[in-house]
Design a protein that fits this description.
By secondary structure, the chain is α/β, with parallel strands linked by helices. It has 14 helices and 15 strands. It has helices at about 20-25, 30-35, 40-55, 65-75, 90-95, 145-155, 205-215, 235-245, 250-265, 295, 300-310, 325-335, 340-345, 360-370; strands at about 10, 60, 80-85, 100-105, 130, 155-160, 170, 170-175, 180-185, 195-200, 270-275, 280, 290, 315, 350. Bound molecules: pyridoxal-5'-phosphate.
């Protein structure tokens, strides 16, 4: 009876796996070809399937999402300052800094934790060359307002879309906004190739540049304008991506069920707030973020997290610390005026969310939260 009920541990994320036979079928030809990296057959297949799924014309694959973003910024030859958000994974800002650019941190909105477009304009200076907004937890940024600002000031827009694979806005793929977008295919994302990443871009003239930046800076001849690293995706990664892509819609549908159940279960708990679902947006339900107000709820976040832990539920608190609170950034960028980001970072809780989560486990998490409500 009841398989490992007592020791069942729930983390904030869990990697989805395709049926093992599908993966073996996908990699089997490699034992004939011995072609394991450098634009192999599966790499090409993955590219075309992604173009179709994301509804884009141009894509470049990379070994991981961080390198994809860092090298895309590098290929665009940006200078000076880049406006971004402090409420994101460290990779976003690291990619900027590693290009010798200065990240300028803009505050976020309280409802969906995305960059607050109304606060961007006052941060634009003559040194600003780009904006790197993040669709955090897969919620789309205010893409139209960002577009307008970028046009007005002649800035490039590169979205960190690491968490938003498969998201659509009024039926349009989220991949089609800005000059470029980076997707991460890391194992913890709802769509993954173990490790992996992609840059989708609007200007097809970037094709060669994006090839070079991930291939030492060269395309086969001795021509070398600048030195770049190796950041190619290999065939085993691409095969995992191809297999997972076959199941992505089913994956998203399963996650939506979990999300709906959470929303229902926690809808009437004072002090608990979820990101409102926006009309016209199809989410990907990679994460299940909520914020808690200790006053209204009657317990501190730390106490609630401990109550969850006591029952083997390991909720996350990313993206706390804020970027500006990591040592490297603290000494350099502390002056950022980001009160909303501070408030969100202190109150965020990321609940367990994965495709094969059982309904009774969602109910258990909701029950623990409700039982501890002391408002
Ligand atoms: C995961 C993630 C990255 C980094 O992607 P990797 O594939 O892990 O290198 C960058 N930005 C954000 C917002 C992420 O969530």
């Amino acid at each position: 009876m009841c398989k490992d009920k007592i020791t069942k541990i729930m983390m904030a994320t869990r990697s989805s796996m395709p049926p093992i036979e599908e993966y073996i079928e996908e990699i089997r030809p490699l034992w004939n070809s011995h072609w394991l990296s450098n634009d192999g057959t599966i790499h090409s297949k993955f590219e075309s399937k992604l173009k179709e799924y994301l509804d884009v014309e141009n894509i470049a694959l990379f070994v991981n999402g961080h390198m994809a973003l860092e090298l895309a910024l590098s290929g665009m030859n940006l200078k000076g300052e880049v406006i971004t958000t402090p409420f994101t994974y460290i990779a976003t800002a690291n990619a900027i800094v590693r290009n010798g650019l200065k990240p300028v941190f803009c505050d976020i909105r309280e409802d969906d934790f995305n960059i607050d477009v109304d606060k961007i304009e006052s941060l634009i200076t003559e040194k600003t060359s780009a904006i790197v907004p993040v669709h955090i937890y897969g919620s789309p940024c205010d893409v139209e307002a960002i577009d307008k600002l970028a046009q007005k000031y002649g800035l490039k827009v590169i979205y960190d879309a690491a968490q938003s694979f498969g998201v659509t806005i009024d039926g349009n793929s989220i991949a089609n906004y800005g000059d470029a977008s980076m997707f991460s295919f890391h194992a913890t994302k709802s769509f993954h190739s173990v490790e992996g990443g992609a840059v989708v871009y609007s200007d097809k003239r970037w094709r060669d540049i994006l090839f070079k930046v991930g291939n030492f800076g060269t395309i086969q001849s001795e021509e070398l304008e600048w030195v770049y690293p190796n950041a190619k995706m290999n065939e085993f990664q691409a095969a995992m991506g191809v297999c997972n892509l076959n199941h992505i819609d089913e994956e998203i549908a399963k996650r939506k069920r979990i999300s709906d159940r959470y929303r229902e279960g926690l809808s009437d708990v004072a002090g608990i707030k979820m990101v409102p679902e926006r009309r016209g947006v199809r989410g990907n339900y990679t994460y299940m973020p909520m914020t808690m107000d200790p006053e209204a709820f009657g317990l501190s976040r730390k106490e609630l997290l401990q109550k969850l832990k006591d029952e083997n539920v390991f909720a996350g608190t990313f993206f706390e610390p804020l970027i500006v609170d990591f040592d490297y950034y603290k000494t350099r960028y502390r002056e950022a005026d980001i009160p909303v980001a501070r408030k969100v970072a202190e109150s965020i809780i990321v609940l367990p969310m994965f495709a094969d989560m059982e309904e009774e486990d969602v109910d258990k998490v909701c029950r623990i939260i409700k039982d501890n409500y002391k408002g």
